[in-house]
């Protein structure tokens, strides 16, 4: 049992358990949460891609804009983009120790958001864009 | 003591480092750990494939035909085959981590079996997906 006698940490800080970065285990937890979600979503994504194999323009439009496929694609995009942002951040923090680390972590977030925004926009345009 | 404070000569700077990766004999768990990270990084870049395909479809018939031509070419199929394996391998590696998360599979035999199963199953599932893909197209 850690005593508060010889530490400057307050009892409240210990109880919250958020550490010096103020985020506690949330990175790890969100990584696992999206990983659990990604298992069925990625399997659905593979099935969708297999269905789209060799399809023409109109067939592909009809496939992507069908509600179940559109919803599964949107969920996969969001969950996978967040998951890959978390994973790449760990890789950056493991290997980049110079001042470039902060720039790399920022660029990582921008890339993940860009991928998600572009893919979500495309699915919504295909579904609601009157194509 | 002034010279002891020059960076590079302080005791904490010249302490021996722990051996790096290449000094160790490769084991299955080590190889699958490295593979998990490499496939994860590959999928990070590979997410652009989905973006390209969806944006092409959203842009119109001509852009879509160009995308379909590329993904149907030999290079395109090779990239998609690699993507399929990376996705399935990373997924199975993740499931291996879920097993460890609940406190199971930590003994040497289980670790070894799980690591080998990850590779065997990812290869088998990749081939299965592509056999189905060719069968339905």
UniProtKB/TrEMBL annotation, chain A:
Pfam families: Sdh_cyt. Its main location: membrane. CDD domains: SQR_TypeC_SdhD_like (cd03495). Keywords: Electron transport, Heme, Iron, Membrane, Metal-binding, Transmembrane, Transmembrane helix, Transport, Tricarboxylic acid cycle. The chain crosses the membrane at residues 35-57, 63-82, 102-124. Pathway: Carbohydrate metabolism; tricarboxylic acid cycle. It is a multi-pass membrane protein. The keyword Transmembrane applies. GO terms for biological process: tricarboxylic acid cycle. GO terms for molecular function: heme binding; metal ion binding. SUPFAM superfamilies: Fumarate reductase respiratory complex transmembrane subunits (SSF81343). NCBIfam families: succ_dehyd_anc. Part of an enzyme complex containing four subunits: a flavoprotein, an iron-sulfur protein, plus two membrane-anchoring proteins, SdhC and SdhD. This is Succinate dehydrogenase hydrophobic membrane anchor subunit. It comes from Chelatococcus composti.
UniProtKB/TrEMBL annotation, chain B:
Keywords: Heme, Iron, Membrane, Metal-binding, Transmembrane, Transmembrane helix. The chain crosses the membrane at residues 34-56, 68-88, 114-136. It holds the Pfam family Sdh_cyt. Its cofactor is heme. GO terms for molecular function: electron transfer activity; metal ion binding. Heme binds at residue 90. GO terms for cellular component: membrane. It comes from the Bacteria. The heme is bound between the two transmembrane subunits. It is found in: Membrane. Membrane-anchoring subunit of succinate dehydrogenase (SDH). Belongs to the cytochrome b560 family. NCBIfam families: succ_dehyd_cytB (TIGR02970). Part of an enzyme complex containing four subunits: a flavoprotein, an iron-sulfur protein, plus two membrane-anchoring proteins, SdhC and SdhD. The complex can form homotrimers. This is Succinate dehydrogenase cytochrome b556 subunit. It comes from Chelatococcus composti. The lineage of its organism: Bacteria, Pseudomonadati, Pseudomonadota, Alphaproteobacteria, Hyphomicrobiales.
């Amino acid at each position: 049992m850690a005593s508060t006698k010889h530490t400057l940490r307050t009892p409240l800080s210990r109880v919250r358990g958020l550490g010096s970065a103020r985020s506690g285990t949330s990175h790890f937890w969100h990584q696992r949460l999206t990983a659990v979600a990604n298992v069925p979503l990625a399997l659905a994504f593979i099935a969708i891609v297999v269905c789209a194999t060799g399809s023409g323009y109109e067939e592909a439009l009809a496939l992507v804009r069908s509600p179940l496929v559109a919803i599964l694609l949107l969920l996969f995009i969001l969950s996978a983009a967040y998951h890959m942002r978390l994973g790449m951040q760990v890789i950056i923090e493991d290997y980049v120790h110079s001042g470039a680390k902060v720039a790399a972590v920022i660029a990582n977030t921008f890339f993940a958001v860009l991928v998600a925004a572009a893919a979500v926009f495309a699915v919504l345009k295909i579904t609601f864009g009157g194509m | 003591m002034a010279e002891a404070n020059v960076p590079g000569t302080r005791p904490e700077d010249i302490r021996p480092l722990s051996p790096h990766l290449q000094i160790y004999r490769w084991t299955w768990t080590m190889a699958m750990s490295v593979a998990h990270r490499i496939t994860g990084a590959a999928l990070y870049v590979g997410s652009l494939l989905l973006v390209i395909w969806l944006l092409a479809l959203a842009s119109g018939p001509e852009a879509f035909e160009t995308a379909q031509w590329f993904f149907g070419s030999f290079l395109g199929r090779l990239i998609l085959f690699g993507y399929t394996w990376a996705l399935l391998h990373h997924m199975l590696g993740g499931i291996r981590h879920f097993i460890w998360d609940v406190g199971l599979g930590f003994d040497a035999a289980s670790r070894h079996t799980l690591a080998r199963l990850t590779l065997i199953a990812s290869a088998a599932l990749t081939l299965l997906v592509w056999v189905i893909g060719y069968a339905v197209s």
